[in-house]
Design goal:
Length: about 450
Amino acid sequence: MIAIGTAAAERGRIQGVGARLMERGWEWTKRLSGVGGAQIIAQGLGFVSGILIVRMLAPQQYALYTLANTMLGTMKVLADSGISSGMLSEGGKVWQNRRDLGAVIVTGMAMRRRFAIWSMVVSVPVLLYLLRSHGDSWIGALVMLGAVAAYFWALLDWDIFGIAPSLHQRVAAMQRIGVVQSLGRLLGLVAMLAAVPWAVVAIAVAALPQFWASKRLQVMSFEVADLRQVENAGVRIGVTRVVRRVLPAAIYFCLSSQITIWLVSVLGSTLALAKLGALSRLGQIFTVFSAIAAAVIVPRFARLRSDRGLVLRRYFQVLALLAISGAAITAVFAARPREILWLLGPEYADLVHEVVLLVIGSAMNLLAGTAYLLGNARGHVTQPVISISLQVLCQIWLISRLDVSTLDGVLWFGIWMPAFQLLVYSVSLFHQTRRAAP
């Protein structure tokens, strides 16, 4: 009888544990499906647009598009240099006061536009040189510069006017604007590239719905902030304080985040650049995971109590989950590379080996980026001097060991570099967590 009672109690305990696990699993399923649904749709539309551009542009034109799109990202980071973070910090103090919040937005906008001008002064000559070196004509290069400048200016307004609605948690409305913008871009690409399959058309088509979206955000921003204010010296000082801390890292990010593109642009051929750009489109599948991690996992990680064991356990659990997801996606790419490469078109059908390397590198970038966000969420920021110095040394060593003038060498560089970054961020978090908690 005692044995029967013990067995029944054990079954009850196991069933209770199973019920709790199912309940937690259902809770996380609802949370993950409910957060960022519109954002995931927008990213899906962006993925389709990217594949469409790859298929409709000739490799030489797609190489020019890759250069322009990469430089846009660089210009955007340089123009921000921490201004958005500073505005969020200052705006968070006065978000309930429409007048003061308006002063924050106006001041940040003025600073952002001054930085944007300097960003263009630095970036435009570099882009002009790269476009010309990869076969674009003077007229074509100048027209491309005009399209890039227009798109860049629309992106500036989008970031700034999104701050006030974000502080008031008008996330759903902002996401709807993002979905409409992405859909407009997709439809515009379908209509225009079929008639004029040029890289500059793809950039210009993307700029138009971006202007519309920025104007919609401006209207939303005016509803919660008085944008008729003048620049505020106190706000400018507060934002500048953040910029001084972020600017060195921003400059390094511009040089390192797209280093594989820069290496192929300078050392490789136009065809290799087109191939790398096309493969990178497939790697965008990991943006869904990074968006979910940023929206759901990182905030919860930041709220963990200061328990060294708990923090480290959750940190490695998150990385393990992402690693398993990345391995599963890599296995699919390795098993069916030709079917996946069909998405890119016949010009890229021979990249069977390269597509597997690309997806491995994308998975490593996901892990390294998440590790960086998790460390920052706990306030365990790796010292920029140490982190940047170590990464530069690693980059120099890899460049000396790999033939980065070839696509294969650049892809291996894109695997080993984020692997090293993951190691640096993990060691830093482990060390600082041990110091912060008993």
